[in-house]
Amino acid sequence: MTTETTALNRYNRLFDNQQYSAIADRIAADLRAERESIRVSDVMNEVTNAALSLNGHSHYADAWLKLATFCGQNAVSIPTIDTIYNYLLIYQQPQDTRAEEFELTAKALLKAYAASDTLKAAVSCANGIHGWRGRMAYDLLAASYYLVQGAVQLLMHGNLSYIREKLQSGQRRISGALYEGVRHSGHPELFNFSTTYFPTEQDRR
Q: pTM for this structure?
């Protein structure tokens, strides 16, 4: 018997239709879609793929990440994420943590996207404030926005070069903020971070 067949048999044996249907109902409500719509069906296929992966099906090893990314990007509610998590726990085997990885990644992405929207609005508002404090605040808010974007990509296992680009943008904004503090505040020493050390390849262990 193949690993895939064993995984499918275990999935069928443990399947809980009541919990599965509850997830579908919640997904439909969150997406404001009909319960029998293709969009809801597509999401439920991803839930099934994640469950199969937890049963040992090799074709869906990263299904939890795809499902978590969808939840985070589409404002799936925390209660719905919790319902999916509890469903996945039915299938999770000892030493496997992917159900928890799904739950925490989905929630982190959900909150990060919300924070990103809020930060973007704050950056726009701060852009018009006069004086060094306003300029410094603007740079720090912009840095926060870029860093959140980098964190989102990390959670999604995104492209490392793109993540580096976001980190560099954030670092430049932080440097700009420190320049404002050094040049215009009454206590430039408080904004002198010249001794800060950044890790290099030599720090790799």
A: 0.93
> For residues 145 and 119, is the Cβ–Cβ distance under 8 A?
yes
Long-range residue pairs from 27-31, CB within 8 A, at least 24 positions apart, any chain? 27/76, 27/80, 29/80, 30/74, 30/75, 30/76, 30/77, 30/80, 31/74, 31/76
Structure letter (DSSP) for residue 55: T
Q: What percent of the chain lies above the pLDDT cut of 90?
A: 95
pLDDT (tens digit, 9 = 90+) per residue, 174-205?
999 999 999 999 999 999 999 999 999 989 87
CA 140 to chain centre: 22
Cβ neighbourhood burial of 44 (10 Å; 0-12, 13-18, 19+): middle
Per-residue pLDDT at 2: 66
Domain locations in the chain as residue ranges: 3-108, 127-194
152 touches 111 (CB < 8 A): no
